[in-house]
Amino acid sequence: MAKERLSMRKIKEILRLFHELKLGKKPIARVCSVSPSTVVDYVRRAADAGLEWPLPDELDEASLEALLFPTARHQRTADRPLPPMVEIHQELRKKGVTLQLLWEEYKEKYPDGYQYSQFCEHFRRWQKTLDLSLRQEYRAGEKMFIDFAGKGIPVVNPVTGEITKAEIFVVVLGASSYTYAEAVESQNLQSWIGAHVRAFEYFGGVTEILVPDNLLC
After folding, report:
1. Most buried in the list 69, 79, 114, 181, measured by CB within 10 Å?
2. CATH T-level topology, domain 143-212
């Protein structure tokens, strides 16, 4: 617990002097009229919250306070709950789902909830707390991930002006994240096989395992 509860303005000044001017705890304490232990405490709180300097422009004082004092902030904002982080994380894996869409659903449920920039900031901070051991590691040449991305893009015939939709075929190598993408007519079998052949030619080979996502066809 902080020995001195400071204004957000003074806390920002402490962080600025520490990160930008590289001052030690004693010089910062003298400049800001606080104790050296208080400087250490707030620098630690900022580090624990994953904050970097300069602070994000969209991070207002209320959001900064919530990150530095999460327990106290949550107690005072029972009617302004944090976004459901795990649910958001899972929903973002689905096609067509964006943070903007999930924020709109959150605001429908909690009209007095966080605004979009704060919503995104809280989610980004939460993502940094995920257990790194859950991250998958892949051997070079082991896996190739295959899918159609998004909802497709409109294509205009330059002669007739007719508008059709093209599907975006994407292949990503697991180890390097090296990516191949192309637009195809549809998700039918002919387009699916043809796109695979061109991807293999582009990469100059085939991995041990192909990992396709669920398809519409």
Report:
1. 114
2. Nucleotidyltransferase; domain 5 (3.30.420)
Q: What CA dihedral angle connects 30, 34, 35 and 36, to 10 degrees?
A: -60
Which helix (H) or strand (E) is 68 found in, with range? helix 61-68
pTM score, whole prediction? 0.41
| Contact predicate 59/95, CB 8 Å | no
- Give pLDDT tens digits for 115-164: 888 888 888 887 776 654 445 667 788 899 998 887 788 888 888 888 88
| Residues facing 165 on adjacent strands | 154
Domain ranges for the chain: 8-72, 80-133, 143-212
Residue 115's SS3 state is coil
**Token couple for 177:** 């994240």
According to DSSP, the β-strands at 163-173 and 179-184 are antiparallel
| Torsion angle defined by CA atoms of residues 9, 10, 16 and 17, in that order, rounded to the nearest 10 degrees | 160
CB 129 within 8 A of CB 195: no
Give the pair of three-digit tokens for residue 94.
């689905």
Give Cα 90 to chain centroid, integer Å: 12
